[in-house]
Write a structure and sequence with these properties.
- The complex is a heteropentamer of chains A (507), B (656), C (100), D (483) and E (166).
- Chain A has 507 residues and is mainly alpha-helical.
- Chain A is built from 19 helices and 2 strands.
- The C terminus of chain A is likely disordered.
- Chain B is globular.
- Classes of the chains: A mainly alpha (507), B mainly alpha (656), C mainly alpha (100), D mainly alpha (483), E mainly alpha (166).
């Protein structure tokens, strides 16, 4: 079991999806329950990961390695480290929540949950794959369920958004594919660990131009996913048009893949290029932070506002990564988690509003505090988390990022800190327009407050946001070794490590 | 008892949690019991802790309690730790004490309001954060409290969320505070970079061994930077120039909130924080000077606006801003203990004044305009009487608490060895004091004296408030009178053999700074100090006199004056048009740029435009291309022939 | 004595005229005849080359080409007939239902 | 020189196919209406038998009939591919012909004869053999395209295909003649031997190659010789389109591969840029053309041009990897295109109902069909876990190995360009509502279901477990060297 | 100038004239006749090149059978004068130049690459029918058989397409 556990974790949702195939399409309630149970089961499957994970170990754990395609040599190789652990857990957590949030979906229920579960397999696969080719496969496979989720169950402009999403992502990922192949041609393997080893031990020398190009290709794919200014315009559309579950997954997990990719590939594989381009990328991150916040401020649409706020927050993540020190990276990871939770919560809340009013326009709301006090409280909480109120986990992450960045560049950190001010403006302004004031539309007067199901969706997120804010070492201690490893690989371009024993990768 | 220190903030948090989750289903009585009880218990615990604290030998102070590691990453490690010394002890007492009284008062004041449980939940939450702010053992935790109180302030200002003005005010408060916190955050970053830690003991120890920086701006160093940034935070939180704009608007909140948060405790957090970081400031004389100048200007500026306001709470709000300015003036003069002293007395009398105002509003069925009041004195005696006490205290009537503290501040400013233009600041402060006296008595006269200008409808309902409200008034009135006696300045006290208890008590806290700032105390005669004090009193009396003349003896005179200096009057009434200027300079351009330039211009126009454009171009190219696909076989044949020709040419001519 | 290249040039000319015919004629049958002309040109080339190399296989190829030409003629003319039946025209330019 | 047994074994598949073709043709007059129905299955049986014959053939590799033919792994691989294509096309046509009222045995016979021609093409070691094979399959194709002879579109397709095809064949033949003139022989071995870069006939040979490429480029629809493709594919009966877009194309590519890899090897450096340019041009023409189509069948036709471009990229790489990639791509391409056109065949009655709106809401009308078509389309896009993806992956790998970074970038750009039009079909199928006036769909006949299942599963299989095919492909490439 | 040269130039000229005429003529029947002229001229040239057998079947099969088929179809369809539409702009403006360029280029290339070393002499190389027969049925038996399939296809195709009722 132990050695196949990661495979089980990856493919369990897929099995669940197959199971769904055998449930008649009319039995909607059964379908929902089965999907929920499967996703919960997946969460349960992830618990042992937490238990077995050895925080002290720097390398890959629970590794799994089989030959897959013999020519070119492609492996089915999985492995877990702190970074993937955190993101897998986040995925496994957000999926049942998304399932619950999709209870109100009446249209083509079966296919919906099918897509959701397939998507989960793809996402977890991305985080666990340690072979570049395998990674790419999971990375692309995810697109299709997401395309359908947006395209079938989305809102008015769903088709445009879906195709835009696909085009952007594919544009990036195909370039990444070129880079992956190129890297293979240079090193003779797709095995990430092997590539690292080969590069670090100087068995293969990339000239600087090659390194830059490869880095650029990888980076572009990830920057689009993150998304980093100016590659972000797919995000507002995709977020707004996606159904609630889609938005949650999109914001909660898919965006993280970009950052994950940066940490997993860009930094360790191309330290020279990373260091050379660090200022540029940091500036892009800064622009994202400020730009996202400013644009978010003037959005008339709740979801679009949240979407642009994601741009801003993910800018922090990239900034933290580009600090290239432990504090920054840890902060980035923490923000990823925090953003997944808080923005997830915000999208869920927006979805609940939509369920009631069938609109996302802020001007259609106002005065919701009267009919929906509980909802308003949760919305407040989520907004506060999102705007980075200490001691919630978002703030902790942002603070770490700022500290980390400050060490390398005072100006960057100062500008980024200003983004926090803007966050307060757009979040609170939105909150005020939605919740405060007199009721302006009669339709809002008779709304019912949150149901038990909706509470069950929101409470875990809320609790986690607080709990992780107070006890972030629960996370950071698990990611510490990984972060240190990444930094070691990044900070010492290819020569220092040559004299060390091989990383524990092979174990 | 010291082991129970953690209970002090936690109790209100528990109260808040219970009320927040279950409050809707609880009876009003139960809500009151939990809301007030938790703070009461917290107050009692504070007393117990205080008792134990006083027993401690000097060497064991400050008490440092570390509970767990809050977060860590790389070199950064922040503990959840509490730091208890004389300063925080004093603050604890003030906060829990005044807080408790206001809670009690609120049970009466909010009795008829909707959202009763919500109010107490917020209030309890506020207490938690405020206590956290006071007790925090490092800057990060302080920042939690700092932001937390801001949040509660936001919530409570916007308590009447149906009113757009309230919601706007809450938002404004939070955002303006955030601007200050921007500075604070940068200060935290700098602190960590400089000292490698955010824990007080590390930072203070580290700063103490550094060389004081020179006064000149050009030679200022890292400590000045940190201090100024910290002070930026304080400017936001304590409503100093230029970020004071939120506080007057904050009066949209329920009156007890104004008393607790926007007068007694939260707004003083900036003062507390600067005092807490005194060692940094004392090493950065330039920063100290800035503190003093800003404080002094604010004191004067806010007082001048207060002169003409007609809303009872707004007058008090501007007064608060002004008084906070005094506190900063004191701190800036290097007299940290004095600043704190004024903080304490201000907490008493300003809480009293606000609660009194609340009582008046309560009696007047919600009316807040003093032009529509008058002659209330006989109808609500307790309120009036206690309000008088407060007014006397703030105006600086001798022997009242404000007299000692304000006077001490002015004196310290005058003699401060670290301030280059002490006398100028003193002069401004003095003028502000005069204005204070004027607007306070104007307020009193217009409210309680003269003839009633209210409608008969209102008149029917005028009644004295319930005892739950008057009792705190009385207690606070007593404190406003006697509260100053713990810090009687040496010049006055020595003769009577009354020591300055407070200064003694706080002595160990500020010892490090005093050693720097007052290494050579300037020789000033007590008589000089007494003389200046006399001058202050005199001017206060003048203020009283003018107010009496204008508003009791000769009411039309005020209007004539306003007519005469119409321009000035308009400027004052409109608060120097600062809100409008901010809107025109920052808010609207930012909005415009964000919407027109960034979003619709760049995002939709340029980026999406470019991509949609290229999609469209591809489409058009495809359309163009398929027109070649004309369906005419001859054309196809021509293509083939053309291709063959090209190929042949390529193969044979270009290659060989 | 005629050099072989003359034959080749002749074949090129004929081939080229075939192409010209293909591109300038509109009648399906004449276009098809142009193709036949091209094939004839090829045959001439084959025979000429066979002469140069003095191998007989060139002749065999010509034989095959003629067979193919015959087969093509059968199919091609059948197609032309069908076209004429369905469209009632032999003008190649009129037959453009399928386009874009 | 009497043919030996080995010679016969080496053309066994062709013999079997021709035999069955004649059988089908001869039996028809003797059979009644019901009996005629058995002819299709009989033809399918023929292809199965031919596959078996290919297995036998595979065991007897070597030259046949002098050096006119060569049976090597390469040709065996392509025999498998082509005969399978033919078989699947037969199956896909069974009900189609009945429905369209053209169920004549000649159809199957022509398919089988066409397969004979293609089989000869892929194992030909001599240019006239190539020509004859090509002509056999082409003539069969011309007729098949026009098989719905009362439909103006079909006959027009046939006419265009015939005229342009013959025109291009003229060029091909002239090319062969010139090559013959340059080397005195048309056997590939001789050509390779004689056509050294400095040999006297080299310029002549270059001319020959150019014209030869025109002819074959026409067959594989390389720009600028692609113009016929959309029209012909659209006009042809859909099962024929399925056959046409896969079989002859694969065969022609095989010839190109073999000839360029062996006989024209000395000119590698010269045709590199040519391939580079045509590859890029072909991809763009195909994709841009497809981008604006609203007729699914025509869109698929344009898309097959684009795919020819991708294969040319592999070609341009000019290394073993490239040839392997091209071969792999061919099989993946054949599966997805066969599948896609089969779906089109089922949905279009009287070759109408091919516009996007007719596919609207297909998932509610025939979910399995929609799912299959989705698999094919995703594979055509080149998303992972499909054969199309691995095909592209191998192609790009080969091209990158050859250092053709820019060509690969263009390829990637084209892949992105292709996403919208494939997804448009997926979109209408899954996100659109069925047209109100839509006639009820006939149930999917078992034969077609078999075809679709096989192609869909094959597509996925190639995407997940390509090893077996890869090995086959690799040894095919290795076998391509002349002794 | 020898007789052979004279013959060559005469029939080469006739072939070119025939070909040109085929292109120029409007009525298909005229074109067909011109084509026959080309074919017959070519047959003479084949003879000059020593290809007896080819010359024979050129006349019998090509000119005799295939062209008759053409003429037959022309008659059948009653094809009249060609309609000179010019809808294909590509063919109209580029067609002739491209084709002529192609012609000139090929001719020039052939001339350049084949400097007349080999001269055609009578009887130096003669493709006797017997030799060809041997070759055809031995070495080239496979293509020969394949042509049978080809012809089968052609027959089938012609029948399928052109028969009125099937």
């Amino acid at each position: 079991m132990h050695e196949h556990w990661l495979s089980i974790v990856i493919f369990f949702p897929l099995l669940g999806a197959l199971l769904l195939l055998f449930v008649p399409g009319g039995a909607k309630e059964t379908l929902r329950r089965v999907a929920f149970l499967v996703s919960l089961g997946e969460l349960a499957l992830c618990v042992p990961l937490l238990l077995w994970f050895d925080s002290a170990q720097r390398g890959i754990q629970l590794a799994e390695r089989h030959a897959w395609i013999s020519s070119p040599p492609i492996l089915y190789q999985l492995g877990l480290d702190g970074l993937s652990l955190v993101l897998v857990l986040l995925t496994a957590l957000l999926t049942p929540i998304s399932v619950l949030a999709s209870w109100t979906i009446e249209k083509r229920v079966k296919e919906f949950f099918l897509m959701l579960l397939v998507l989960e397999t793809g996402m977890i696969g991305v985080f666990l794959a340690l072979d570049l080719f395998l990674f790419y496969v999971f990375w692309e496979v995810m697109l299709i369920p997401m395309y359908f989720l947006i395209g079938i169950w989305g809102h008015e402009r769903r088709l445009y958004a879906a195709i835009k999403f696909i085009l952007y992502t594919m544009a990036g990922s195909l370039l990444m594919l070129i880079a992956i192949i190129w890297l293979y041609l240079e090193t003779g393997t797709f095995d990430l660990l092997q590539i690292q080893l080969v590069l670090q031990q100087h068995r293969v020398l990339l000239d600087f131009r090659t390194e830059l190009l490869l880095f650029g290709a990888f980076f572009l794919a990830f920057a689009i996913k993150v998304p980093l200014f100016p590659f972000h315009t797919w995000l507002p559309d995709a977020h707004v048009e996606a159904p609630t579950a889609g938005s949650v997954i999109l914001a909660g997990v898919l965006l993280k893949m970009g950052a994950y990719g940066l940490l997993r590939f860009c930094l360790p594989l191309f330290p020279g290029a990373t260091q050379a381009l660090q200022p540029l990328i940091a500036v892009l991150a800064l622009i994202s932070i400020i730009y996202g916040a400013l644009v978010s401020m003037v959005q008339p649409n709740v979801k679009k506002l949240i979407a642009y706020s994601s741009v801003s927050h993910m800018g922090f993540v990239v900034l933290g990564i580009m600090a290239l020190n432990e504090t920054g990276l840890q902060g980035a990871i923490l923000i990823m988690l925090a953003h997944g939770l808080s923005t997830g919560a915000l999208f869920l809340l927006a979805g609940m509003l939509y369920d009631r009013r069938h609109t996302f326009q802020i001007s259609d709301f106002g005065g919701l505090a009267t009919p929906l006090p509980v909802f308003s409280s949760f919305l407040l909480f989520a907004s506060l988390a999102s705007l980075g109120l200490p001691p919630l986990v978002n703030w902790v992450g942002e603070f770490m990022v700022l500290i980390g960045t400050f060490r390398s560049n005072v100006t960057y950190a100062s500008i980024a800190a200003f983004g926090v001010v803007l966050a307060a403006i757009y979040m609170l302004w939105m909150y005020q327009r939605v919740v405060f004031g007199e009721i302006k539309h009669e339709a809002n007067r008779k709304l019912t407050d949150l149901s038990r199901r909706e509470l069950a969706i929101l409470i875990p997120l809320t609790v986690l946001i607080v709990a992780l804010g107070l006890a972030s070492p629960l996370i950071t201690r698990r990611t510490q070794a990984t972060v240190q490893r990444i930094l070691l690989q990044t900070e010492s371009p290819y020569y220092e490590l040559a004299h060390r024993p091989a990383p524990e990768a092979q174990r | 008892m010291l082991e129970l220190l953690w209970l002090v903030p936690i109790l209100p948090l528990v109260g808040a949690a219970v009320l927040g989750v279950a409050g809707r289903r609880l009876s009003q009585g139960a809500v009151s019991a939990i809301g007030v009880g938790s703070v009461g218990l917290s107050f009692l615990t504070t007393l117990g802790v205080g008792y134990a604290f006083f027993q401690l030998p000097a060497a064991e102070i400050p008490v440092l309690r570390t509970y767990f590691t809050w977060f860590e990453a790389g070199a950064l490690r922040v503990e959840a730790s509490f730091y208890l010394d004389q300063l925080s002890m004093l603050m604890l007492l003030v906060v829990t004490g005044v807080g408790f009284l206001i809670h009690v008062y609120s049970t009466g004041y909010m009795h008829h309001e909707g959202g009763y449980y919500r109010f107490f939940a917020y209030l309890n939450l506020f207490m938690f954060f405020m206590l956290l702010l006071v007790l925090a053992g490092n800057y990060a935790l302080l920042f939690v409290g700092w932001e937390g109180v801001g949040l509660c302030s936001y919530l409570l200002i916007g308590f009447y969320f149906l009113r757009d003005s309230a919601a706007n005010a809450g938002k404004k408060a939070f955002i303006v505070n955030r601007i200050g916190d921007f500075g604070f955050t940068l200060a935290l970053l700098l602190l960590f970079r400089t000292f490698g830690s955010l824990e007080y003991n590390h930072v203070f120890a580290g700063a103490a061994v550094m060389d004081p920086e020179p006064l000149a701006w050009s030679q200022a160093g890292i400590l000045t930077a940190i201090s100024l940034l910290l002070f930026t935070g304080a400017i936001g939180k304590s409503a100093q120039l230029p970020l004071y704009v939120w506080l007057p608007d904050a009066m949209e909140g329920p009156t007890p909130v104004s008393a607790l948060i926007h007068a007694a405790t939260m707004v003083a957090a900036g003062v507390y924080m600067v005092a807490r970081s005194h060692i940094l400031f004392s090493h950065a004389p330039f920063a100290l000077m800035v503190v003093a100048v800003i404080g002094c200007l604010t004191a004067f500026y806010a007082a001048s606006i207060g002169l003409v306001q007609n809303d009872i709470k707004r007058v008090l709000a501007y007064s608060t801003v002004s008084q906070l300015g005094y506190m900063f003036l004191g701190l800036g003069a290097g007299a940290f203990a004095t600043g704190i002293f004024h903080l304490m007395t201000h907490a008493f009398f300003k809480a009293l004044l606000f609660l009194g105002a609340g009582s008046v509003i309560h009696a007047m069925s919600g009316q807040q305009d003093i032009r529509k009041m008058g002659g209330l004195w006989p109808k609500i005696r307790t309120t009036a009487l206690t309000f008088w006490m407060g007014t006397l205290a703030i105006a600086g009537a001798p022997l009242f608490s404000g007299f000692f503290s304000k006077d001490e501040i002015l004196w310290q400013t005058f003699v401060s060895p670290s301030l280059p233009f002490g006398w100028a600041l003193w002069l401004l402060g003095l003028m502000a004091a005069t204005m204070t006296s004027f607007y306070m008595f104007r307020l009193v006269f217009l409210t309680f004296h003269g003839e009633g200008r209210y409608t008969p409808e209102t008149a029917k309902h005028i009644h004295e408030s319930p005892s739950s409200m008057t009792a705190p008034l009385v207690i606070l009135a007593i404190l406003s009178v006697v509260g100053g006696w713990v810090g009687i300045p040496a010049a006055m006290g020595e003769a009577l053999h009354i020591p300055n208890y407070l200064e003694h008590f706080l002595e160990p806290v500020f010892a490090g700074s005093n050693a720097i700032l007052r290494a050579q105390p300037a020789a000033h005669a007590h008589s000089e100090e007494l003389g200046l004090a006399g001058l202050t009193v005199l001017l206060a009396a003048v203020g009283f006199g003018i107010a009496y003349t204008f508003y009791l003896r000769n009411p039309q005179l005020a209007d004539q004056l306003a007519e005469t200096f119409r321009g000035l009057y308009q400027v004052l009434v409109n608060k120097y048009y600062v809100d409008e200027i901010y809107a025109a300079v920052f808010v609207r351009p930012l909005n415009w740029i964000s919407e027109r330039v960034l979003w619709r211009g760049f995002d939709v126009g340029v980026i999406d435009g470019a991509l949609d454009g290229s999609a469209e171009r591809a489409q058009r190219l495809g359309d163009w291309l398929r027109r070649w696909q004309s369906g005419n076989t001859r054309s196809y044949g021509a293509w083939v022939a053309l291709g063959a020709l090209a190929l042949l040419t390529y193969f044979v001519f270009w290659v060989s | 004595m005629i050099p072989v290249s003359y034959y080749l040039i002749l074949s090129a000319i004929l081939f080229g005229l075939g192409v010209v015919g293909f591109l300038t004629k509109r009648n399906l049958i004449t276009i098809f005849m142009s193709i036949e002309l091209m094939l004839n040109a090829v045959n001439l080339a084959f025979v000429a080359f066979a002469y140069t190399w003095q191998v007989l296989s060139g002749h065999i190829f010509v034989f095959f080409v003629i067979v193919v030409a015959a087969a093509e003629a059968a199919v091609g003319l059948a197609i032309i007939i069908v076209i004429f039946r369905t469209r009632g025209s032999l003008n190649v330019e009129r037959i453009d239902l399928l386009k874009w | 020189m009497i043919p030996t047994a080995n010679d016969l074994l080496r053309i066994l598949p062709e013999v079997v196919l021709a035999g069955f073709g004649i059988l089908v043709m001869m039996l028809e007059p003797f059979l009644g209406r019901g009996g005629k129905r058995a002819l299709g299955p009989l033809a399918f049986l023929g292809t199965v038998a031919a596959l078996a014959a290919t297995v036998i053939q595979a065991g007897h590799q070597g030259y046949a009939f002098g050096r006119l033919l060569v049976v090597d792994t390469f040709s065996v691989y392509l025999h498998f591919l082509l005969i399978s294509i033919t078989g699947l096309s037969v199956l896909a046509s069974l009900r189609y012909l009945e429905r369209e009222n053209i169920d004549h045995a000649e159809f199957y016979a022509l398919l089988l004869f066409g397969a004979v021609g293609m089989g000869i093409m892929v194992s030909a070691n001599e240019l006239v053999m190539v020509f004859l094979g090509l002509e056999t399959s082409s003539l069969a194709s011309y007729v098949l395209v026009g098989f719905r002879r009362t439909d103006g579109r079909a006959t027009e397709g046939a006419m265009k295909y015939f005229l342009l095809g013959s025109f291009a064949t003229g060029f091909l033949l002239y090319g062969i003649a010139l090559l013959f003139g340059a080397a005195g022989s048309t056997v590939l071995n001789d050509l390779a031997e004689k056509l050294q870069a400095n040999s006297p006939g080299f310029t002549l040979a270059l001319m020959g190659m150019a014209l030869f490429f025109v002819g074959l480029g026409f067959k594989v629809a390389v720009a600028p010789f692609q113009a016929w493709t959309p029209d012909v594919y659209q006009g042809a009966p859909s099962p024929v389109t399925a056959f046409l877009s896969t079989g002859p194309k694969a065969a022609a590519f095989a010839v190109l591969l073999r000839v360029f890899w062996t006989a024209f090897e000395p000119a590698t450096g010269i045709w590199f840029w040519l391939l580079w340019g045509t590859a890029a041009l072909t991809m763009f023409v195909g994709n841009l053309g497809a981008l604006v189509q609203t007729n699914v069948k025509r869109m698929l036709a344009y898309s097959s041009i684009a795919h020819a471009g991708y294969i040319l990229v592999a070609f341009a790489a000019g290394n073993e990897l490239g040839v392997a990639a091209a071969l792999f791509y061919l099989i993946a391409y054949a599966l997805m295109k066969l599948g896609a056109f089969s779906v089109v065949a089922h949905l279009s009655v009287n070759e109408d109902h091919q516009s996007l709106e007719d596919y609207s809401g297909l998932h509610t009308r025939q979910p399995a069909l929609a799912a299959c078509l989705t698999v094919f389309l995703l594979s055509l896009i080149g998303l992972p876990l499909t054969g199309g993806f691995l095909g592209k992956f191998f192609v790009f790998q080969a091209a990158l190995r050859a250092g053709l970074v820019w060509l690969v970038v263009l390829g990637v750009l084209n892949s992105i360009l292709s996403v919208p039009y494939y997804l448009r079909v997926v979109k209408v199928m899954y996100m659109g509502e069925p047209r109100e006036s839509a006639a009820p769909l006939a149930p999917v006949p078992a034969s077609l279901a078999f075809v679709l299942t096989l192609t869909a599963l094959g597509t996925v299989y190639l995407g997940i477990l390509p090893d077996a095919v890869q090995q086959f492909v690799t040894s095919s490439v290795l076998s391509l060297t002349l002794p | 100038m020898t007789a052979e040269a004279l013959l060559f130039f005469l029939f080469a000229g006739l072939a070119v004239v025939g070909a040109l005429n085929m292109v120029v003529q409007r009525h298909p029947i005229h074109s067909a006749l011109s084509l026959i002229l080309v074919m017959v001229s070519l047959a003479v040239l084949y003879l000059l090149l020593g290809a007896e057998f080819i010359a024979a079947i050129q006349v019998i099969v090509y000119a005799g059978a295939i062209m008759v088929l053409f003429v037959f179809v022309i008659m059948l369809l009653n094809a009249g004068e060609e309609e000179r539409t010019n809808w294909s702009r590509l063919a109209r403006y580029l067609g002739l130049p491209v084709a002529v360029t192609l012609l000139l280029e090929m001719g020039w290339l052939l001339y350049r690459t084949w400097p007349g070393e080999t001269f055609v002499e009578a009887d130096r190389f003669v493709g006797r029918t017997a030799a060809i027969g041997h070759l055809l049925f031995k070495d080239y038996v496979l293509p020969f058989e394949l042509t049978s399939v080809l012809i089968l296809v052609a027959i089938l195709g012609a029948v399928v397409l052109a028969k009125r009722e099937l």
